[in-house]
Amino acid sequence: MCEYVTDASMMRTNLDLTAMEMIYQFNKLKTPKFGGGTYSMVYEEWLRRMKNLLEIMECPKRFKVRLATYQFEREVEFCWGTVKPRK
C-alpha cells in the first residue's frame, strides 16, 4: 500500500508543473526564435511551429503566452515589453 502511494505521488501531469519545469521541457525541444521581419510568412511559419510544439508538450493554457514570448528576440522582444499584460 505504501509503495503504491509513493508511486502515485511521483506521477505528475503537465498541469502540476511549475513555470521553470515547463521552460526546461520547452527548451529541450529546440524551439524556434522569432526576431521579427517584414515577411508575414516568417511569422506564420514561426507561429505554426510554436502551436505544434505547445500541443505536443500538452502545455497548459496558463504557460502558452509566457513560453511563446520567451522566444522573442530583437525588436519583437522590445515591442512585447511595451504591450504585454501587466499583473
Overall domain count: 1
Tell me the major beta sheet: none
Number of E strands:
0
Q: What's the average pLDDT?
A: 76
Low-confidence stretches: 1-12
What is the strand content? under 5%
Number of helices: 5
Report how far the terminal alpha carbons are from each other: 44 Å
Succession of helices and strands: HHHHH
- Could you say which overall geometry the principal axes of the C-alpha atoms support? globular
What do you see in this structure?
- The chain is mostly helical and 87 residues long.
- It has one domain (2-83).
- It is built from five helices and no strands.
- The protein is globular, with a radius of gyration of 17 Å.
- The N and C termini lie far apart (44 Å).
Secondary structure: elements and pairs:
Elements: H1 2-10, H2 19-28, H3 40-56, H4 61-69, H5 74-83
Output the keywords.
87 residues, mainly alpha, 5 helices, globular, disordered N terminus
Concise structural overview:
With 87 residues, this protein is mostly helical. The protein has helices at 2-10, 19-28, 40-56, 61-69, 74-83.
